[in-house]
Specification:
elongated, five-stranded antiparallel sheet, 11 strands, 3 helices, single chain, Jelly Rolls
Length: about 250
């Protein structure tokens, strides 16, 4: 094993009733500690060189309509804009940042809302519904007749994609993106193009992406040296309910 991976090897023996006599739970716990510490020590002293380094990457997506018949009409209810959607597998944990713009053509006065939803399938707090409801990166503006370019941005902490079982919901799958649009006046505005750049930086930090907003009102901070208290709104840090039988 050492010649191939650069890791020392050994044979582990765990005699029956070595710890806590016949207490099965305590014995298994100590055995797990031994195995964990053993693997940690072997890995720490390994001379194996990782061949695939953590490297950032960028993916760019863009589209322009070739005529009026290709302009996507913004509906009066929230709806994904299919032409903007994409998906990708993630090989290593990373933080993602998506920036860009959308070209909107308005035929009359209307209010348009755009929400860039970047989410990861089957990932805790990362699903489409949670990210859509978050609404932190949406932009809503009143438009007059003409052409308007609206900026977009969003971020996501992505986990490794499980590509072994596409039917299982136990582990994160693909990272997906869709622009969600709506207007207060039907057939008054449409999307004629967009340009989006997705940047990913692989990271081992447990919370590599954080989104916050200042608490209170703008008038609460009148002094130029005041620093607002920040409320973290992503990640949500929802803690799973404790197992009542854990200590039994």
């Amino acid at each position: 094993m050492r010649n191939f991976f650069g890791v020392n090897s050994c044979a582990v023996a765990w005699p029956t009733e070595l710890y806590a006599d016949n207490d099965y739970n305590d014995s298994v716990t100590k055995y797990a500690e031994l195995i964990g510490n053993l693997l940690y020590t072997l890995a720490k002293n390994s001379t194996y060189t990782i061949k695939k380094q953590k490297l950032p990457f960028i993916k760019h997506f863009s589209w322009r309509s070739s005529g009026n018949e290709e302009i996507y009409e913004i509906k009066t209810q929230k709806e994904k804009v299919p032409i903007t959607s994409f998906e990708l597998d993630v090989e290593k944990p990373c933080c993602m940042s998506l920036t860009g713009y959308v070209i909107v053509i308005a035929d009359s006065y209307c209010n348009v809302k755009l929400n860039p939803v970047l989410w990861q399938e089957d990932a805790p707090e990362q699903g489409y519904d949670e990210r859509l409801a978050m609404d932190s990166f949406s932009i809503e503006l009143p438009l007059s007749p003409g052409v308007c370019v609206l900026p977009l941005e969003t971020v996501l902490q992505a986990y490794c994609s499980d590509t072994n079982d596409e039917y299982s919901t136990a582990y994160p799958k693909k990272v997906r993106f869709s622009l969600v649009a709506e207007s207060d006046d039907k057939a008054s505005a449409g999307i004629s193009g967009f340009s989006l750049s997705l940047k990913a930086f692989e990271s081992d930090v447990g919370k590599s992406v954080e989104v916050s907003r200042p608490m209170g009102l703008a008038t609460d901070y009148e002094n130029a040296d005041d620093i607002p208290t920040q409320e973290i709104i992503y990640p949500l840090e929802i803690v799973t309910e404790r197992d009542a039988d854990y200590d039994d």
